[in-house]
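Standup notes
- HV: blocked on the assembly model, inputs below
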Amino acid sequence: MSEPAPQTSPRPNVMQPKPVMLGSQSALDTEPAVARSGIMQAIARGERVESRIHDAVAGEEAVLGVENFSLFYGEAKALHDINLVVPRGKVTALIGPSGCGKSTLLRSVNRLNDLIDGVRIAGDMKLNGDSIYGPRVDVIELRKRMGMVFQKSNPFPMSVYENVVYPLRIDGIRDRNVLDEVCEKSLRGAALWDEVKDRLHSSALAMSGGQQQRLCIARAIAAEPEVLLMDEPCSALDPIATGKIEDLIWELKGTYSVMIVTHNMHQAARCSDYTAFLYLGRLIEYGPTEAIFTKPLTGETEDYVSGRFG
Amino acid sequence: MSTLPARPVETAPKPTLRRLSNPHHSNRARGEPMLWLCGGSLAVCLLMVIGLLVLVFWQGIGTFWPHPVVQVRLADGSVRMGEVSRQNSFQPSTEQLAELTPEVRAQAETRLVDGWSSRRQFRTGNFDLTNHHYYWVPDYLVAEESNPEWAVLIERQTWGRFYGFPAELRIDGKAVATEPSAVMQRLQTELEPVLTRFHRIEAIRKVEIGGLAEREEDARLAARAAELRYGKDSPRHRAAVAEFEKVAADTSDQGARFDDEIRELQRENARYAVLLKTADGAEKELPLDAIVRIYAPNQLGFAGRVGVYLDRWREFLFDSPRNTNQEGGVWPAIFGTVLMTLIMSILVVPFGVLAALYMREYAKAGLVISAVRIAVNNLAGVPSIVFGVFGLGFFCYIIGGSIDSLFYPERLPTPTFGKGALIWASLTLALLTLPVVIVATEEALSAVPSSMREGSYACGASKWQTIQRIVLPRALPGIMTGMILAMARGAGEVAPLMLVGVVKSANELPLDGAAPFLHPSRSFMHLGFHIYDLGFQSQNSEAAKPTVYTTTLLLIAVITVLNVFAIWLRSRLRRRFVAAQF
């Protein structure tokens, strides 16, 4: 990928409208043989690809809006002009093959990518109308408005209780009543209360993997986030723990707006309302989960969700 | 992809054949030689370390064991008596044999085996009479050998050990007991009050008279301070001088009274003396208060020997040294070593951790940080004496000198902080061990998983909150490891300490009951320097050798105890922070 600087990313040959060039397959031997509408070839040629956004998305109220967002790791462009609207109170899944930029996009939402040297961005995101990448944004305050759950559970080396109330502790809240209340509420919210209520003050590291991940969810929802970001939360868990987390996501829906990255197509189908398909840093298609899985607008999406590539 | 090997089923016997035909290949493949090389290297390292420890332990542990006293009559008629301290074989030179009288020589030659003979080193003591502590006695010269029942060993306040026979116990110059058994019996009852009086004299000298001198010195300093502050012959100065004169008169009155008391006690003690005979017939009168310990080694049973052994250990561990450090205990040195090491650890750990935090967490990785890191690592290679010179020049003279002229002008020209002191020694060693702490802390910080940091940032924590609440607790065991290494390095260091505060003998401990309890400006004693002093600075290094081993053993033990304490602390922390991950 040899994209130049972000300013010049809309190249002159954008004109090419959604090319359908079945004939040129042989020129690209790295591409899967089943590519149908030619988006792969267009990407390989470095052309701009328009996302296919289903009309149903337009009717939703946005909690998070991604506007023309691009991201570079040094010279390599990892995200290409993403436009995406995350609806309030719904679960939005990001799917796509490894390295397509799902996690990068998710980590861009709470600006965790700032920690990595050499990351540049173009475009902006809006959280409930407030700019995320604006020049006067306080990143610390911004992150407090979101919760994040990581691929590998990362409970802190402290007690269960302290783990859950960590976001409040760093805000300087010391009132025992408030902390107790939030702890119970969050643990109940993460369907963990009954299992750990008797050992709130033992080490969080002594719990099982599934419990640790639910603890991380409890921690993420402790500060009442406006949007909950989940980066493949079940990839390190066994099917039973996965089932519990999926049930939990289903329950969190409505109260929280969830954005979840997943490798597991079934998981996306089971627990999300909307699904976005990303490929090589581009948003290919975005729409209601049912539509994406049953009658997608592009052949690439169909191939991916039906397991023919990726 | 097109050059896949043929399917294994078809060529199944082939690998077996090849392996059999080339055993070296299979050996290398199994990595056997490397296993032996790695294991062998470890074994050699362990062997050397364990060898050193066993040597030190073996030599050090036996120093205080009371051996039987042997008396030998030599061919030329002279008599030697003492404890056998060493034994080896040697080849007497022809000159040595030529010096002997013909009949002795003929006898000696019959006892030589291929020109070799064994010989024993006798610790004969009685340095004041013979000017020797030791004699080598070749076996071929020994005409007669015995373990005299009434040979006694006396450890004295001065002049070292005495080996001889008790002849008389004298009170006021009159003999009250003349038989050895009677003398020893009588000694049991008479020695105790004499020693009590002796210790009372010591106590008066140190506590009472020392206190008076201190009071007088304080008054003199107050007068001097008033002079510096308000000018000579100002009313305040005159008042202070008057006060000083009053105190001086008072203290000299009291001092005279204490002197009288001491004289009285000394006169009483002088009445008691014991007359001793050496093996070769010389007589020596010894006042009882010069005796530290007296026993008849050849009469001691096993329990008695253990008793003497343990009592010597007690004296060694808890008493002050006497007789220019060659005898007595090393308590001030133990105390100084431990205290200095602890202060050094308290100083070095915060410094090192903060520096490492900046390098690892805050600074942008790049050329400058790499250069700083290399510089810090190389700091560990600077000879420690250079740190000592720096400490002397910077801490003692510049900083200490400034403190003196600012806060203690009345004491000048006598320096208070502007000389070697506990605090400067600790600071110098802290500087010396700083690289160890920085490197270990950096390792520990980089071992904290980035998922922890990200989790904390995602909760909205600031950088410092993340460091303080997540990174540091997680890195604490590693930081403790750095502290343990620094302590081990610092406690064993001697060269720089000689310049910045360690002395051969210190009258006062740096920590005592007088306010402000910890006296950072005092010089102190150190086990490492004590070893050097005993081994290389005493006139009688042969006699000091066993004590050198014992002191080394003790230093190793002290460092081990300090380390075990730190390791225990670390394992407690580790249990808290890294509990069983599923």
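- HV (later): unblocked. DSSP finds 18 helices and 13 strands in chain B. The first strand of chain B starts at residue 69 and ends at 74.
- Next: hand off to the docking folks.
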